Amino acid sequence: MKALVTGGAGFIGSHLVDLLISKDLKVVVVDNFSTGRKSNLDHLADNDQLEIVELDISTDPRLNELATDADYIFHIAALADIVPSVQNPELYYQSNVTGTLKVLQAARLSKNLKKFVYAASSSCYGIPDNYPTNEEAEIRVEYPYALTKRMGEEMVLHWGKLYDLPVITTRFFNVYGPRSRTSGTYGAVFGTFLAQKLAGSPYTVVGDGKQTRDFIFVKDLVSALYKLAGSEIKDEAFNIGSGTPNSVNRLVELLGGEITYIPKRPGEPDCTHANIEKVLAAVDWKPKTSFEQGVQIMLDNIDYWSKAPVWTPETIEKETKPWFEALGK
């Protein structure tokens, strides 16, 4: 069995690669290393089940050849973060929309495709009316990153029906774990806080810190992707979260340290809470890592963030200014 993983050198992608190889699949990783790190796969350097191909999914025709004998395609590659998507929406469209189109077209060339799994985003819900939020909630994208991920999801579901591709889309909530990104003022709260902890700086907490997030540990998330890929289900969207939100203040309590508060950002929900009843009913899967266990694992691996930028209220204000200007009401 062969799996093609786009963005396989990134945070989530590299953990998925670990799982697939442990299940005795041959894995081909395609990554342009714009955000992914080769070091995320260094521990597999001598594994003959892994092939790494450096290419840009939106422009490189070699993707078609790599997909022709793929049994599974996991499309994880994407540009993330709100602020740069506001500053450069065209780049996000190229990566997240055109890139998804190219991967879908390559998938049509596969002679024995069993499942195409797309990494969508819970950001498509914007600020929902109901919590926990299920897959039938109204789509309310608030910024270009969310829009491009939603457009990719719509293409995946459309291609599945039109070209009879066995597709599934998975809406990620707040994923955390080892190898998570070391930059960004939004979407990577763990990386921001861990770098601040190492530097002895106060944690930059948005608003009053009472906002809650549905944090899911990365190994639990990739386990869900694997289970869904092996199922007979197709043409469906699934929330992937823990189903148990925790507040930012709770995270700070577990990490330990001082706090400095910064203004709340426009378009951010006070709560993300995944209704995961659909995926629980669909496959034999459930989250296994408690928030407390996950935070401890992050602390045990804190040296990873030693070279990450240490954000301050001043640098965050400068970085997020375009966000406030574009989305401020």
Can you offer a commentary on this structure?
The protein is α/β, with parallel strands linked by helices. It folds into 2 domains: 2-174 and 217-240, Rossmann fold (3-Layer(aba) Sandwich), CATH 3.40.50; 176-214 and 243-273 and 288-327, UDP-galactose 4-epimerase, domain 1, CATH 3.90.25. Helices cover 37% and strands 17% of the residues. It has helices at 11-22, 62-67, 83-87, 89-107, 144-162, 189-199, 218-229, 248-255, 277-282, 291-300, 313-327; strands spanning 2-6, 26-31, 50-54, 72-75, 115-121, 167-172, 174-176, 203-206, 212-213, 215-217, 236-240, 246-247, 259-262. It starts with a strand and ends with a helix.
Q: What strand order characterises the main sheet?
A: 3-2-1-4-5-6-11
What is the string of SSEs from the N terminus onward? EHEEHEHHEHEEHEEEHEEHEHHH
Can you tell me the CATH class of the largest domain? Answer: Alpha Beta
Oligomer: single chain
Shape: globular
Would you identify the CATH H-level superfamily of the largest domain? Answer: NAD(P)-binding Rossmann-like Domain
Mean pLDDT across all amino acids: 94
List its salient traits.
alpha/beta, 13 strands, two-stranded parallel ribbon, Rossmann fold, UDP-galactose 4-epimerase, domain 1, single chain, 11 helices, 329 residues, seven-stranded parallel sheet
In a nutshell, what does this entry contain?
The chain has eleven helices and 13 strands.
Write the layout of secondary structure elements.
Elements lengths: L1 E5 L4 H12 L3 E6 L18 E5 L7 H6 L4 E4 L7 H5 L1 H19 L7 E7 L22 H19 L4 E6 L1 E3 L12 H11 L3 E4 L5 E2 L1 E3 H12 L6 E5 L5 E2 H8 L3 E4 L14 H6 L8 H10 L12 H15 L2
Parallel strand pairs: 1-2, 1-4, 2-3, 4-5, 5-6, 6-11, 7-10, 8-13
Antiparallel strand pairs: 9-12
